[in-house]
Amino acid sequence: MDLKKRRRIIQSARWYMMEKKLPPDTPVRFDVVAIWGGTVKIYENAFYIE
């Protein structure tokens, strides 16, 4: 997952948090699931909102 995609996901998450009136210091983490051919790899805690 490249930086541009992470930024887009984080921007969407911040918008969601504002819409739901969540505090800005709410801990948020993202897990990523990557699929290559028949292989599935899960990356827990792949990135956070800082």
UniProtKB/TrEMBL annotation:
UniProt keyword terms in alphabetical order: Endonuclease, Hydrolase, Nuclease
This protein's record includes keyword Nuclease: yes
Gene3D superfamilies tied to this protein: 3.40.1350.10
UniProt GO MF annotations: endonuclease activity; nucleic acid binding
The protein's name: Holliday junction resolvase-like predicted endonuclease
